[in-house]
Amino acid sequence: MFGILLKQARLSAEMTQEDLAVKALLTREYVSLLERDKRSPTIEVFIRLVRAVGLSPGEVILEVEKSLSR
Fold first, then answer.
1. Cβ-defined contacts of 27-33 (< 8 Å, 24+)
2. 67 CB neighbour count, 10 Å cutoff
3. Which of 63, 68, 42 lies closest to 34, judged by CA?
4. How far apart are CA 28 and CA 49, in angstroms?
5. What distance in Å separates the CA atoms of residue 39 and residue 50, rounded to the nearest whole number?
6. Contacts of 47 (CB under 8 A, 6+ apart)
7. Cβ distance 53 to 6 under 8 Å?
8. Which end of the chain has fewer CB atoms < 10 Å from its terminal CB, N or C?
9. pLDDT tens per residue across span 7-57
10. DSSP type of residue 48
């Protein structure tokens, strides 16, 4: 679920995976794995990613929580 939200936020911010990777100090390949829910980020990486796309960690956690309760 986090991967879908991350991709939507990245696209809304008009960023490529490469743009996001550079801003969050990651590789493009890792961003791709996260967006496809093939990997889960550490808390530190999670915070860097969501801040890089202009969201707050709390906003994203609430969205993931909502999707889990559906």
1. 31/6
2. 12
3. 42
4. 12
5. 16
6. 57
7. yes
8. C
9. 999 999 999 999 999 999 999 999 999 999 999 999 999 999 999 999 999
10. H
